[in-house]
Design brief:
The structure holds two protein chains of two kinds. Chain A is mainly alpha-helical. Chain A is about 60% helix and about 0% strand. Chain B is of the alpha/beta class. Chain B has one domain: Glutaredoxin (3-Layer(aba) Sandwich). In chain B, the strands form two sheets. In chain B, strands 5-4-3-6-7 form a five-stranded mixed beta sheet. Chain B has a two-stranded antiparallel ribbon with strand order 1-2. In chain B, strand 3, helix 2 and strand 4 form a beta-alpha-beta unit. The termini of chain B are far apart. Classes of the chains: A mainly alpha, B alpha/beta. The interface between A and B is medium-sized, with 26 and 26 residues.
């Protein structure tokens, strides 16, 4: 057996051992509302809209609606049970933002750090309009 | 000479490339810091996560004594790495309580038998409800909680030997 071959065997043996505890985070059944929709389709639609704009904290480029991470399932359960109890979606978002900061929400907000994102395009449009106006005036 | 203005867009572009290139070489920080530091713990009352340690509720953390609240799980590999350092903290007289995330009692018992049990109480958080309520985004995380149940400090990731003095200091500050 070549050296690289035996290395490969050792590596796969190691991975097999390591994967046992990793898989164990799935040993409990998922939260009741992780993969089950709410009975009321209107409430489910509200919950779905909200879940698509909340960031999965374990897999940070996905929304909790897109992620199969167990923690995202627990967050979906949290959202759906709160919607079912009649809580407003923006109140749920605010509850999460109060714990994780703006980072948990994909919904854009104007804040101390994000205002240039909104201001710069407006300034550019204004600048373009001024240049255009001056050129058109110069021509006539 | 007015021609220099022609170079302004190119200069802006070069500036943009420069900033982007610099940011690409910077290490990315994936840590999400809890916004609950300085806030009281939420109300919770968890069942016991293992047979040989009592359950955990908010009232247990309001007895006037600062302590560590460790968020862990038997399926979490870095939790194995930090176990000896939690034991060091316990030997230095620190009271450590824990929340086990999405865990079965037999798995918790096996983990504690293998890697040691520095905890005085362990609550089971099967739906990550308390974890979400304290702004923790993974395992392991460790919070310094003062005697009034206010969160004073958050350590994200496994505790290494070099983190022990800082945690001792934060516990002293929480007195």
């Amino acid at each position: 057996m070549s050296v690289s071959r035996s290395l490969l065997v050792a590596l796969s043996a190691l991975l097999a051992v390591v994967s046992i505890p990793v898989a164990a985070q799935y040993s409990l059944p998922p939260a009741p509302y992780a993969y089950n929709q709410l009975a009321d389709p209107d409430q489910e639609a509200v919950a779905q809209d909200l879940m698509e704009t909340l960031r999965c904290l374990k897999c940070q480029s996905q929304s909790i609606a897109d992620s199969d991470a167990p923690m995202a399932g627990d967050m979906r359960h949290q959202v759906r049970t709160r919607i079912e109890m009649g809580e407003e979606p923006e109140a749920i978002r605010a509850w999460l933002v109060a714990r994780y900061g703006d980072y948990v929400s994909y919904a854009p907000t104007v804040s101390e750090t994000t205002w240039p994102l909104f201001a710069v395009p407006l300034l550019l449009i204004l600048l373009a309009a001024i240049i255009l106006w001056r050129r058109l005036r110069a021509r006539t | 000479m007015k021609r220099w203005t022609l170079w302004v867009p190119l200069a802006l572009f070069a500036l943009f490339i420069g900033v982007a290139a610099y940011q690409l070489t910077q290490p990315k920080n994936d840590f999400i810091v809890s916004a609950m530091i300085g806030q009281p713990l939420p109300e919770f009352d968890l069942r016991a996560a293992s047979l040989d340690r009592p359950a955990l509720k908010t009232g247990d953390l309001r007895d006037g004594k600062p302590r560590l609240l460790n968020v862990f799980a038997s399926w979490c590999i870095p939790c194995v790495a930090e176990a000896p350092h939690l034991e060091t903290l316990r030997r230095q007289g620190v009271d450590i309580v824990a929340i086990a995330i999405r865990d079965r009692p037999q798995d918790v018992a096996r983990f504690l038998a293998n890697y040691g049990n520095p905890y005085s109480r362990i609550g089971a958080d099967d739906l990550s409800e308390v974890q979400l309520a304290i702004g923790s985004s993974g395992v392991p995380e460790t919070f310094v909680v003062d005697g009034q149940g206010i969160i004073r400090y958050q350590h994200i990731g496994d505790i290494r030997a070099s983190d022990v003095p800082l945690l001792m200091q934060k516990l002293a500050e929480a007195q």
